[in-house]
Design brief:
Oligomer: single chain
CATH architecture of the largest domain: 3-Layer(aba) Sandwich
Radius of gyration: 40 Å
Number of strands: 38
CATH superfamily of the largest domain: Class I glutamine amidotransferase (GATase) domain
Strand content: 25-35%
Strand order of the largest sheet: 18-17-16-19-20-25-24-23-21
Amino acid sequence: MSDFGLHIRFQGLPLWVLIPIAALSVYVLWRYRDFLLKVEFPKPFAPLALRAGALFFLILLAAGPVIYMRARRPTPLRAAIVIDRSQSMLLKDGTNTTRWARALAAARIVENELETTASIFTADDELSPVPSIDSTQKLSPTGAETFLTDIPEKIRAGTDEPYTDIFLFSDGRNTSGARPAGFGAGTRVHAILIGKKQNDYNAGIGEIHAPDYGFTGEKINVAGYVYAVGVPDGESVGIELFDGGERVDQGKVTVNGRSEVRLPFSLNFTPQTSGLRAISARVKLSGGETVLDDNERTVFIDIVTEKRSMLYIDSPGWESRFLKPYLAGVEKLKANTIMLGPGSIYTGEDIRNTLGSAAGLEKYRIIIIGDAGAYLTERERESLAEYTKRGGQTVTLGGMRSLFTVGGEWGSTLGALDKGASAGSKEGFEVTPTADGWTSDLLRLADNGAENRRIWKSLPFAQTFYRAAPPAGSLILAAHPWLRCAGGPCPLIFSRQWNQGRVLAISFEGLWRWKLREKETDSQVYDRLWKNIFENMLESERRSALTLRLSARTITLGEKVTATARVSPETFNKSNAATLSVKPPQGALENITMTPVPGRAGFFSVDYTPGSAGRYSFAAEAAGRRSDAEPMAAQVSPAEFRWVSPNGNFLRDFAALNGGAYSDERGAARIAKQAVKNREYRTVRLKRSLLTYPILLFVLAALLSAEWIIRRRGGLS
């Protein structure tokens, strides 16, 4: 520190008081001098000078002297430590420890060298604060993407006071495609490279596609693409297709000379037995690969022995115009269609006779009833109700002639019409998913949660709906944005158990508008909704006291899967708790307590986030019963394993753009020390009262003590 601009001000007793005190002090000293001379004190000048000095210091202290100065002080270090948590940090680079473990060790070194407490963050496609570096020991690097260039903006948005120094620990594999960005004036970014240079010789499965279902004895095609990095021109990459542990097909693709290529593949197999099958595609290079984590991807296919029959009842209109061809294109279904009108049958006379018998309807796995419920006879409506109560799956759509309007048993099942209420809205209204709707796989129109919300916000408005109070026990998935029914939001999409069966009710009219939107925007929301409905309602034909459903069969590592258990009423009466057991690909069995689903008696759910890639097996347990095992595959992100070597150039440029230092993990301590040493300085104005300095009181005491000693030696008391 260098001080300059020194000056003194007096802020104690005012001058008009100090002058009389000074005059009185002079008078006291003059009388003291006369006294010393009168008693012939030897060398009277010494005690006189000491007393004069003491009086001077007393007057000085009474004046309240304050020193003002300007000084240069180092700027306080406000540091953040950001640790890359993407999946590429799982790599070991030929060592016994992962990049993630080495990044944590280097981050601890930096934290110890800093002279302040640092904020800790982990980063992948999001930036997440964590309490401490030690708390990250429980975490695993599962991020599917690495958006390093987003860190400056996200860390700036999360704090009111800017950081002076940011220490980034990463392998530099930024998957956002953006170049290094400047953070802003006053903030230095120091980059510490984690990882070692390797031979980027790697191939992996980027994508795999297969139908959701197939039939025994019929060929099924499995396609996708292989990516190859650093594979020489003309070299082949082998591909094998496995049904469980049995290889059912194989082939190869040839690299065309570029440093990074996408190579499409297509393989086939013919299943001979039914059931849910795990089909895996694997790649194999002739030489030793750098990393094997990305060599396999799995897809699950439901193999059935025959098409599942369904019945669609509606009247001619826009909805049937779109839904009929969609049903005809679903290979898993054998759809029978009947179009009704007032007192007439337009199509489907050959199956009309079965509508009056619940037993005749039992051959259908699912029945869809559109805007034609009022055209059915009372006996036919009773048969449909009995079919559902016995365990059937029924979907009913809204409309002026739908089952919502017929009253009777269906009226109590779908909800009582609000007295004096009118359906619809002149300005139209948005179909708004509820909290249960956002988490339901029925309303998932996109795999990504944010994209799913965007799609729902962009759907065409509905115009009319059946304004009714939801029946007891209903799970409301979507509601009117402002109208109320029986004290709560009016339901637009809801489901409920009806004895052993299930009803899915869509009370608004106009799903066909979603299909028109598809033609305008080339989206697939209409088809996706119906696909979700069939996957959700066409479950296994087994009827068990305890069933378990997973929100997804395949996920990318880092995503969560929701497990939902349904306990039958007779079993639920014996137990109000359920447990999920999870068998990971490695390690011990995990048991997790499931949470009751509000408003749904007998339903329990829990979210689970896999910590490693591989195949998992889930099962639910309640009241001494155990559900069938449900498989799921967590797979690595191709973006994170395509290139294996760390990208030091990216981190070096990132640090250079932001006035920081760059080093590998061995130089972490040096960078921290250099950051502390090179802190910026600022000029500050300092104010110090002399009364705060003990030396002045010591001098005063010394003067008085010295005078007393001299007086004693001269014979005076």
